[in-house]
């Protein structure tokens, strides 16, 4: 059945002491890219949902996840997909990153103070000096996200969402479909 739909839940966060954060994030990245590689696959995430123990969702989180999966199965929403990211230097010494996506229902929430973004070095580690000032919904395109950083990005640097093992994430669209954890390459002019 080559057209059989497959729904995937991207691994969320954990407070287990032993996992390798880099390997954990690599699995999340591969999971988030499945819909671009395999037809009839849709992905949602649990990165923003509450835990009951070191790794499992609590009842409230499971209910939200179930509704997310039901909307994907019914075809009323589709997987959110990253399209592109562009860097715009801002005087005097900051950067503004513009992220576009497909599949966004309505617009991104919250409108302002989105949590979970992190500037990463070329080797995927948290940047020692460049940090996110604020992430917010693009006022001209509710399906796009802008991220202001305190220093313009350099070639090879990236933006991560849900980076590490215990991130605090809160970005969903108006249908409660979450932004999957992942690493985003940014076009630097």
In what range is the share of β-strand residues? 25-35%
Strands side by side in the biggest sheet: 3-4-8-7
- Look up the CATH topology of the largest domain: Immunoglobulin-like
| Secondary-structure element order, N to C | EHEHEEEEEEEEE
List the helices and strands and how they pair.
Blueprint: E1 6-10, H1 21-37, E2 41-45, H2 59-74, E3 81-90, E4 94-102, E5 108-109, E6 117-120, E7 132-138, E8 141-149, E9 158-161, E10 172-173, E11 182-185
Parallel strand pairs: 1-2
Antiparallel strand pairs: 3-4, 4-8, 5-10, 6-9, 7-8, 9-11
What does this structure look like?
- The mean pLDDT is 93.
- This protein is 17% helix and 32% strand.
- It has 189 residues and is an alpha+beta fold.
- It has 2 domains: 69 residues, no CATH class; 105 residues, Immunoglobulin-like.
- The chain has 2 helices and 11 strands, in the order βαβαβββββββββ.
Descriptive terms for the model:
Immunoglobulin-like, 2 domains, 4-stranded antiparallel beta sheet, about 30% strand, single chain, 3-stranded antiparallel beta sheet, about 190 residues
TL;DR?
With 189 residues, the chain is of the alpha+beta class. It has two helices and eleven strands.
């Amino acid at each position: 059945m080559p057209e059989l739909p497959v729904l995937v839940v991207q691994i969320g966060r954990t407070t287990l002491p032993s996992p390798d954060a880099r390997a954990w994030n690599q699995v999340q990245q591969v999971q988030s890219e499945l819909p671009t590689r395999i037809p009839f696959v849709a992905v949602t995430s649990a990165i923003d949902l509450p835990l009951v123990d070191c790794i499992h969702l609590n009842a409230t989180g499971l209910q939200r996840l179930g509704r997310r999966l039901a909307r994907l199965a019914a075809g009323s929403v589709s997987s959110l997909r990253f399209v592109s990211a562009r860097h715009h230097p801002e005087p005097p010494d900051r950067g503004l990153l513009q992220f576009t996506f497909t599949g966004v229902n309505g617009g991104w929430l919250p409108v302002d103070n989105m949590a979970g973004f992190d500037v990463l070095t070329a080797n995927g580690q948290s940047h020692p000096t460049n940090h996110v000032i604020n992430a917010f919904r693009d006022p001209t395109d509710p399906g796009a996200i802008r991220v202001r950083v305190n220093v313009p990005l350099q070639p090879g640097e990236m933006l991560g969402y849900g980076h590490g093992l215990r991130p605090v994430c809160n970005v969903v669209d108006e249908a409660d479909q979450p932004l999957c954890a992942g690493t985003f390459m940014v076009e630097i002019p």
